[in-house]
Please model this.
Amino acid sequence: MIWGKKNPLKNLGWLLICLFLIYPMSTASALEFPSLKSLGLPSFKYGKLKRDRDVNRTFETYKILPDHKYYTSGQAGIPYAIIGIHNIYKLRRGMWQKIDLTKPLLRGWVSQMNNIYGYPPYGSVILDNNGKRIGVWYSSKQWTTVIIEENNEIAVVAPEIPGFRGGN
Model:
């Protein structure tokens, strides 16, 4: 143990050693590290979700956007999330399943998601790193990671399992 009650001079010695080691590093103006590009690694830009009343209304009125490709994450019967990605973007699928969305299918999912999950789902726009709309999100989970890659490729992290409503 470095800090003991028995020998205060020993504690002072350790303190001086720590200060002696830290001081030169604290006076350095900046440390330069190579950029990810110079190492041959991709550099990512991050997008985000922004809650949006109009997107929520789009899902709750079962409207399918014609210029979007749709994906779900979670169970086939009741997805954890539904996303629509604008056609000019390519989604890295990961945990997302591409679907041919129909109005009856959307109606059933929206109703089931609203009834079974502990927190009601809500619509959000998916924005790129510049705030440009690249898609729509509908889930009871209101956060995710959106990664903007090169050549209009994007990655949207699938949400975790939402909580379920308890019964009496």
Q: What stands out?
A: The CA atoms of residues 32 and 102 lie 53 Å apart. Residues 8-26 form the longest helix (19 residues).
